[in-house]
Structure formats: C-alpha cells, structure tokens
Specification:
Blueprint lengths: L6 H21 L3 H4 L4 E6 L6 H17 L2 E6 L6 H8 L7 E6 H10 L11 E11 L1 E5 L7 H10 L5 E4 L5 H13 L4 E4 L3 H10 L4 E4 L1 H10 L2 E6 L25 E9 L4 H15 L2 H9 L3 E6 L1 H21 L6
Parallel strand pairs: 1-2, 1-3, 6-7, 6-8
Antiparallel strand pairs: 3-10, 4-10, 4-11, 5-8, 5-9
Helix pairs in contact: 1-10, 3-10, 5-12, 7-12
Length: 333
C-alpha cells in the first residue's frame, strides 16, 4: 500500500486547491452544487454499524462541520458492496452523490467477477483516500510456529496440509491467502466459511491452523493466548500491535493485504466541482484532530488526494487481478 502522505505535503496540496477554488467559483459551479442548502449524499455500500459504515459517517460529519455544507449518509448494501457502487456510477455527476469506496468494490471483486456493471477506471472520479486497516497472518497457538519464517518452513514441509480459514471465496482474506501462496511458494488448504465469526471459532478451537484477520478483530484472542500473530501484512506495523513485525520489514514487500476506504464521485465530474470537493475534503484530511480520531477508532490514516488516489486505485486493481489470474479465482455472478 502507498505510505501515509506526509502532512506537510498534503498541506501544500491543500493550498494549491484553495487557490484554484476561487477560479472555480468565478467560472460558475453548477446550480445544484452551488446552492448553500444543497445536501451531499454519501452512499455507503455496507450495512449500518459495521467498520465500513463508521469510517463513512466519521468523514461525512467532519466535512459537514468543516465546510458548512449538509452531508447525509445513505446505506445501500448488497452484492458485497457492488450495488451501492453501481448506483453512484450511474448517478448525475453534480457533486451531490458520492461513494464510500473500498478495496472490495474497487479492487478485489472487480478482479474476480466475470461480469461487472461498472468499470472501475472509467466510471468514477476518485477524490480522496481516507483510512486503511491492515490484515495479519495469525496461527492457532498450538501450531509449532512463532514467526512468518516458521510458518513458511512448516507449510513447505507439508504441502497442502495447513488449513487456513477465510470468510468466503473472493473475500479480502481469501485473496490474501492466495497471495500468500503465490509469493511465498507454499501450498495451503484454503477453507472458505460463511463469515469471520465461524473462522474465529474454529481457529480458537484448533479446527483450522491459521487465518488472515484484522488486528482489531483478532486482538482479544491474541491477548487470551489462543492464537499467535505472526506478521502484519502491510508496509508498516499496526498501532494496535506494535510488537508484531510487518511483512515488508520481514523482506516481503509485495505481501500486502490491506483494507482501505476513500471517496469517489461519478465520472465526468465538472472540474470546478472537483476542486471544491477536494478543498473541503483536504481541510479535514489535514486536520490533526480528525486524524487522531481515525486512529482512536482503530484505523490508520492513509491520505491520498486526487490523481494520486486514482493512481493507487489502478495499481490496487491490477495487483488483485494478477492474484486472481495466478490462483484461477473467478466468480460467475
């Protein structure tokens, strides 16, 4: 994953946006967006109450307070986040309908589905990445391994024998297990479940040997000693588990399994509206209190604005397409 943007460089970017905003207003912003009482709708393609929903609501509230404009959150779950993304892709590009996009809707699912009702690179204007949350490789405490190197050595000695649970075919943790195999040259028995709660129950009981789970989710089991966290699959360590090495520092810079969240608009967003939205979002994403609030909720601030976010999206999609091709992972619907 691209490292967190230094605050200083983002502040400089924000100044540029602020300078361009006056030109945008003089050019004339489309009527609906320019109205002071216009409401911006942030479509969250997940159910209320989940971590994805929390990120969206935190950001919408912060931008509304900072900009003085009204924002509302509208949940449109379904098809693993694809229904909400499709809705925004087809919405009017006036700046009043935005999407909380994530690794699922822009990376993993488009990489493995035979058919898609939107094109990631053509149907959206990518505005800002907000936050991320890495996954970690964890093992049942009874497995005789204490490090990633131990896990790889054991897996190579018993091809296909180690059972690694995932929350379902095509889920980010399932793709992470496939990435683990291809990059480390090992063969695992990937077992898909119908949700993460079942994975955790079987991992704790020793019915499976390992899994790929977010640090926040696995922390209680790690504290009770029933599982052992071997590596955080990111470029840096997790603030929740500072004693656990990252995959990058262990020499595996491409072994990255990270959930992320950002804001996108429909394609063909007018340039002046884009500038104004970036100005409003940039003000929040350079605010230290907001970034500290993100950390307090267990997420990592992972700020990218405008073109840099769009470039990240392209790279993320291509990386999961490669994993899907190598592992022959395809979803028919």
């Amino acid at each position: 994953m691209t490292p967190i943007h230094p605050l200083q460089s983002i502040t400089m970017k924000r100044r540029t946006l602020l300078g361009g905003a006056s030109l945008a207003f003089s050019a004339g912003i489309p009527t609906a967006f320019a109205q002071t009482d216009a409401v911006t709708r942030l479509v969250v393609p997940f159910t209320p109450g989940a971590s994805n929903d929390l990120v969206g609501r935190m950001f919408a509230d912060a931008v509304a307070r900072s900009s003085g404009r009204s924002w509302i959150v509208e949940n449109k779950p379904g098809a693993g986040s694809l229904l909400g993304a499709e809705f925004v892709a087809k919405a009017k590009p006036d700046g009043l309908t935005l999407l909380l996009c994530a690794s699922a809707s822009m990376g993993v699912l488009p990489a493995i589905r035979k058919t898609m009702r939107y094109n990631v690179e053509k149907d959206f204007t990518f505005l800002a990445r907000i936050a991320s949350s890495p996954f970690a490789l964890v093992a049942n405490a009874q497995l005789p391994v204490t490090s990633l190197a131990d896990f790889v050595k054991l897996a190579k000695s018993k091809p296909g024998a180690l059972r690694i649970g995932s929350s379902g075919v095509g889920a980010l943790d399932y793709m992470g297990a496939s990435l683990l195999q291809s990059l480390l040259g090992i063969e695992l028995n990937i077992i898909p479940y119908k949700g993460m709660s079942q994975v955790l129950n079987d991992l704790r009981a020793g019915h499976i040997d390992a899994s790929i789970v977010s640090p926040a989710t696995i922390e209680p089991l790690a504290k009770e000693g029933t599982v052992r966290v071997l590596a955080v699959l990111d470029k840096q360590r997790s603030a929740l588990m500072p004693g656990v090495p990252s995959s990058t520092e262990l020499g595996h810079s491409k072994l990255l399994v990270v959930n992320w969240w950002g804001i996108a608009a429909p394609a063909n967003l007018p340039a002046d509206v884009r500038v104004t939205l970036l100005k409003n979002m940039g003000a929040v994403l350079t605010d230290q209190s907001f970034l500290e609030g993100v950390k307090a909720k267990g997420f990592d601030p992972a700020v990218l604005l405008g073109d840099q976010f769009a470039q990240f999206i392209t790279a993320d999609l291509k990386s999961w397409q490669l994993v899907a091709k190598q592992a022959n992972i395809v979803l028919d619907n």
